[in-house]
Specification:
This protein is an all-alpha fold and about 220 residues long. The protein has nine helices and no strands. Keywords: DNA-binding.
Length: about 220
């Protein structure tokens, strides 16, 4: 077997896994975790059942791989955004809009499907925690851009980022029961204005008045 043949087989295997993971992400968003089946994944990915089970023995295995794939894609996308804008005069509004698109374009809808399983399945949770933490770290990198621009305290900027992401998670969840673009646009406009004012004033968050990480846990 030649080196090129080996590489070709590796490439084909990687392509099969990619198709399976992308199909799983789509089905999680379209159908949900409880309705997801391995036959449906194989059909959506246009691979045989045997090919799917060769790479992933169980539904849980393929979901873990798919979530890892989606979050790592989001991490890479965010880090490219950071690199492209590190030396630019990027505004608070632009970062808010980027983060909203990141969450609302499917990422958090899929998250809403696997979070309940993570809550009740310890092994599933253990397998996903590291990649979730990597995603959060990439978000901290993007927020560092704006904190440097406004000479804001990085810890205070991190608190603002976390509050922003919590707001967006709640907003995305609410879109399930409320189809009202104007309503969500008003919330985004309010948040942009609030953060512009906060950063213009150096944030001024009294971190010492907040509970410590240990107390919060």
């Amino acid at each position: 077997m030649t080196g090129r043949t080996v590489r070709t087989q590796v490439e084909k295997s990687a392509e099969t896994r990619r198709r399976i993971m992308e199909a799983t992400v789509r089905l999680l968003q379209w159908q949900g975790y409880s309705r997801l089946t391995t036959p449906a994944i194989a059909k959506e990915a246009d691979v045989s059942r045997g090919a799917l089970t060769h790479h992933y023995a169980t539904k849980e295995d393929v979901v873990v791989a798919a979530v890892e794939y989606q979050l790592k894609e989001a991490i890479e996308t965010t880090r490219r955004y950071v690199e492209q804008n590190a030396d630019k005069d990027i505004s608070v509004d632009e970062i808010i809009d980027y983060l909203w698109r990141l969450m609302a374009d499917g990422l958090f809808y899929v998250t809403l499907e696997w979070l309940p399983e993570m809550r009740h399945n310890a092994l599933f949770k253990t397998r996903l925690i590291p990649v979730v933490q990597g995603f959060h770290s990439s978000l901290n990198e993007i927020w560092a851009i704006i904190s440097r621009r406004y000479h804001a305290d990085p810890r205070q900027a991190e608190v603002v980022l976390n509050a922003t992401m919590c707001l967006f998670r709640g907003m995305v969840a609410q879109t399930i029961v409320r189809k009202d673009t104007e309503y969500f646009d008003e919330l985004l406009s309010f948040w942009r204005q609030l953060l512009r004012q906060m950063f213009a004033n150096g944030l001024g968050i009294d971190i010492s008045a907040c509970s410590t990480r240990e107390e919060r846990s």
